[in-house]
Amino acid sequence: GTGAPTRAAALLREVFGFDAFRPGQGEIVEAVAAGDNVLAIMPTGGGKSLCYQLPALIGHGVTVVVSPLIALMRDQVRALREAGVEAGALTSGNTPEETDAVWDALHDGRLKLLYLAPERLASGGTQRMLAEAGVTRIAVDEAHCVSQWGHDFRPDYLRIGELRRALGVPLAAFTATADTETQGEIVTRLFDGAAPTTFLRGFDRPNLHLAFQPKDQPRRQILAFAAARRGQSGIVYCGTRAKTESLAQALREEGHSALAYHGGMEPDQRRDTEERFATEDGLIVVATVAFGMGVDKPDIRWVAHADLPKSIEAYYQEIGRAGRDGAPAETLTLFGADDIRLRRSQIDEGNAPPERRAADHGRLNALLGLAEAIGCRRRQLLSYFGEDHPGNCGGCDLCDRPPETFDGTEAVRKALSAALRTGESFGAGHLIDILLGNATDKVRQRGHESLPTFGVGKDLSRSQWQAVFRQMMGRDLIRPDPDRHGALWMTEAARPILRGEAGITLRRDTIDRAKAARPAVK
Ligand code: ADP
Ligand code: ZN
């Protein structure tokens, strides 16, 4: 059934505050939650801890986590507690009171995760207490520490196999070390040589073609993309429910077979659409992100985003629904300044704590950086997930047609100065009027025609300036303030550019495209 994945998705959102799994996480979480013995090899920064933390919340009983890094354990315990999860650590850094509190919680059956420093395993007392405590799973972080030939060897890790045998519970081992010799040692020492379910797949999906386009006429762009793929199964993701309906209608008018799908629809209507999509050839589903969980059609030939996804993780997950059969599949993601404003204000207006909001901005920035990338997109995408790729993938729009760039330092400085001289109180439209030297009513009312920046930007058109502002937002040099009608304020990242200590390269093609789309306003 879909019970476990839905529960996992809900926990992912509610406890961890993430909108999508990172590459690999979903499958690993499922296997760990199902009680498999698991060996997962993921790059550093790939998001291993979630793969044992989340399953610990699904079942009952305690998950024991063995990790060699005391500071990291304490950090994780703090973060879990802040998220309302009962977690504790037994390490040499504990005060006696802390240790007592952890044993009490364990004894009362309150604990979901118990972090354990490996040296604790040397004590027979610990093993005995754990045997009585209702441990249902063991997770081993940095599992390569069990390898006697590696440089991180921890002799106490050799006791983990013994603990697993004593408790008779499944074990999930995690490492970033991918060489086969180390893997062999992990299997021998932690699993007594019985092959665990192993996850080593790299994150790259070479059969997916990656492309982004700035929005100029978004509906026309999506219709053109679909027209070139007539008769193929595809998904169009939209930011709003209303748009799924209107875009599906527009596709039908062009002779496609297309259906809308969103969370506001009746359950049977949704089920009907899911079923038709699974069985019919060449159907297009125009959907919100509500469509996807449980969609495992292998031959989806394309995925398009009519609006920018929430984060780089959501992007990867959504495009990843195409081409599961391994045959070539195409993706296209549209983005515009309106998306950036919307996504930023969704983050700022949410009631998440400040650190979480900062992290959300960071994940959005990563996606925006990818949208306005200058080199191979696949390389940039994978590097965000910790995986190296040499670039020149031959499967992205930037490899197909390298973008022209130009030194945008001067333009960016002018734009920043227009924002600063007007008290960081205005949106892009008004700032562009100032740069272009347009004496609009608003400009005259505020006396902005006497600013030194008035008219210094006549070398670019309005749409070119819009592209510059969008790239500045994408690089997080300026941010709209949701409490002041989207007034743009300058971030720390912009300071070196303004001071003349750093330059910036911008993409020319997205600017020229803007120029071609609409005649320059003079
Ligand atoms: P690893 O142990 O693999 O090096 P971590 O578990 O420390 O990686 O995770 C690295 C970072 O990725 C953390 O900041 C974590 O909050 C973030 N992260 C993990 N999973 C997700 C996700 N699904 N969406 C967004 N961020 C995530
Ligand atoms: Zn490429």
From TrEMBL:
Residues 218-365 form the Helicase C-terminal domain. GO terms for molecular function: 3'-5' DNA helicase activity; ATP binding; DNA binding; four-way junction helicase activity; hydrolase activity; metal ion binding. Coiled coil: none annotated. Its EC number is 5.6.2.4. Residues 29-196 form the Helicase ATP-binding domain. The keyword ATP-binding applies. Keywords: ATP-binding, DNA damage, DNA recombination, DNA repair, DNA-binding, Helicase, Hydrolase, Isomerase, Metal-binding, Nucleotide-binding, Zinc. GO terms for biological process: DNA recombination; DNA repair; DNA replication; SOS response. It catalyses: Couples ATP hydrolysis with the unwinding of duplex DNA by translocating in the 3'-5' direction. The keyword DNA damage applies. Its cofactor is Mg(2+); Zn(2+). One of its GO terms (cellular component) is bacterial nucleoid. Belongs to the helicase family. RecQ subfamily. This is DNA helicase RecQ. It comes from Roseivivax sediminis. The chain holds residues 12 to 533 of 695 of the full protein.
